[in-house]
UniProtKB/TrEMBL annotation:
NCBIfam families in the cross-refs: pro_imino_pep_1
Gene: pip
Record-given protein name: Proline iminopeptidase
Entry's family note: Belongs to the peptidase S33 family.
Name of a matching Pfam family: Abhydrolase_1
Subcellular location: Cytoplasm
Amino acid sequence: MDKIPGQKRAVQYLYPAVDPFDQRMLPVEGGHTLYVEQCGNPKGQPVIVLHGGPGGGCSPAMRRYFDPQAYRVVLFDQRGCGRSRPHASVTHNTTWDLVADIERIREALEIDEAVVFGGSWGATLALVYAISHPDRVRQLVLRGVFLMTRAELKWFYGGGAGQFWPEPWARFADMIPENERDDLIAAYHKRLFSGDFATETRYAQAWSAWENALASVYSNGHGGEAPGDYARAFARLENHYFINDGFLDEDGWILKNVHRLADTPGVIVQGRYDMICPPRRAWELAQNWPGADLRMIRNAGHALSEPGISAELVRVMDDLAATIA
């Protein structure tokens, strides 16, 4: 939490960490087993937390955005990452598998309706789930909106963000021969799924470092080297989803179907200087979703731990708890 200047200040907004009251491994379709945990108040308002990536996994820090007296917090590691098994597997691993997994978890935990909280890819998944099951979502709380469009992928992997961050972009692109740099997602795909563990890990760490370097507005352009095991799952899963356009039926699917959220309220917390998921998409989403409350956070980038974003997310959840009470 304190590796980037300013991140220490975010801690003051967060609730103390609480231990899970329930941890389980839940078998789902396709040979996967998901790690699922619950913390907070067993009788509180259910909130399902969707982590980013794909492939990021959940962490204890994600519990700290919720008043443990008010919320029954459900976190899980999506297919192929974190403590879910098989690790780094892309078999039977699509957006629609994850939507089915959320339903499986909801039913197993006997939750009728929940607040759904997600950032970055977690926001994507939250939107797809809510569009598919609007009757199961009480409220959406989204951060760092990613709509899984080709334009967003072109921005981040086609040189757009690299115009602002040329040093980390050069480190990322220079891993690939010049004749393959016109499609870095495809070029990395070939190496991340080469079948050679050392090669996969090396390119996974480069893939992860590019994203990590741009996560915070306080970044110096160096995201650090992620542990090999984590990076391999993160990079393989992200790349698998991105090369398949998120497994959505058409480009722009979320905006074309957001009308299904006409009766679902939501809050969007967006960093004004988010280099990974530019604010334009959050604004477009809010323009097409009458129930959305868009809150642009100045002097903030993409990371969940940005001080302004942390403070606003806690405020949103506290206000929601007061209305529920």
